[in-house]
Amino acid sequence: MPGPVKTEAVVLRSIRYGEADRILHVYTPARGRLAAIAKGVRRTRSRFGGRLEPFFRLSLELHEGRGELLTVTGAHTIDGHPRLRGDAAAIDAAARACDAVGRIFETPEPHPHVFNLLCRHLALLDLQPQSATRARSLAFRMKLLHAAGLAPQLGACARCGDPEHLSGFSGAAGGVVCQACEAGAFAIGGEAHDFMARSLASPLQESPEASGPALAQAERAIAQMLEHHAHLRIVPAA
Questions:
Q1: Is residue 223 scored above 90 in pLDDT?
Q2: Residue 201 and residue 91 share a domain
Q3: What is the CATH number of the domain that holds 214?
Q4: Is the CB of residue 171 less than 8 Å from the CB of residue 228?
Q5: Quick one: how far is CA 138 from the chain centroid?
Q6: How far, in Å, CA of 118 to CA of 138, rounded?
Q7: Which position among 2, 25, 159, 170 has the lowest Cβ density within 10 Å, counted as fewest Cβ atoms?
Q8: For 162-187, what is the mean pLDDT?
Q9: pLDDT tens column, 24-45
Q10: Rounded mean pLDDT, 161-172
């Protein structure tokens, strides 16, 4: 219903609009992804200052009218992630994480655990900018797949259920496949298989590491799951 809306939010994107406005894409715990206009924000004396930039975690006050865009009426910083912004690799990892959340969870459907996961990822990048590794980014994406109901089958062949001789991955089948069912699959090694399983089982701050080839296989598996089951492509993790 039209009226005031108060919510926490992470700014995913901030786009210049007109002479002094910005269009914000934000992710919220109870309203999913929202789009809002911040009027006059680019003026020197704007009361919003610089807090409506990507990666800011905010307490937002919005007005919901009859159109698709809400209007920002107030914003208070919860976490601006200042250390993250001083490291190029951390900025890049944060941007890719926000892009992935915005694309995979593009509707107003609430996913509070996704909001919390994104906040945790940004907080870790701010606390330890050096943690902006490809492995951490892929572990984050594995958790996004799980939240979206797209986690791959990793414990047994996704086609026949055989728990042995798992040597391939098929996005169409929905996970790892055995030697007898590997037609159309790509070869996946034990290290990549283990990385994906441990990424799902471990807290984000304890996400596993892996070699470059194993991470490439894991990223290909994630991309295939999104392409086959969500008809979606997102930018690479690094």
A1: yes
A2: yes
A3: 1.20.1440
A4: yes
A5: 10
A6: 13
A7: 2
A8: 95
A9: 999 999 999 999 998 877 665 6
A10: 95
Q: Which amino acid is at 218?
A: A
Q: Are residues 59 and 142 in the same domain?
A: no
Q: Distance between CA atoms of 116 and 32, rounded to whole angstroms?
A: 12
Summarize pLDDT for 90-127 with one digit per residue, the tens.
Answer: 999 999 999 999 999 998 899 999 999 999 999 999 99
Mark whether 65 and 117 lie in a shared domain: no
From first CA to last CA, the distance across the chain in angstroms is 40
**Does 6 score more than 70 pLDDT?**
yes
Task: Supply the range of the domain harboring residue 158.
Answer: 86-230
Predicted TM-score (pTM) of the model is 0.94
| CB-CB neighbours of 100 under 10 Å | 23
Closest Cα to residue 145, out of 236, 28, 224?
A: 224
- By DSSP bridging, strand 57-64 and strand 32-38 are unpaired
Residue 237 lies in a domain: no
| Listed residues 39, 60, 79: the one ending a domain | 79
Q: How many folded domains does the chain comprise? A: 2
Domain CATH for 18: 2.40.50.140
Residues 176, 214: one domain?
yes
CB atoms within 10 A of CB 208: 18
pLDDT in tens, 41-81: 766 566 666 788 999 999 999 999 887 899 999 999 999 99
- How many degrees, rounded to 5, is the angle at CA 214 between CA 211 and CA 215? 85
In this prediction, residue 47 carries a pLDDT of: 64
Same domain, 49 and 102: no
Q: Do 210 and 99 share a domain, yes or no? A: yes
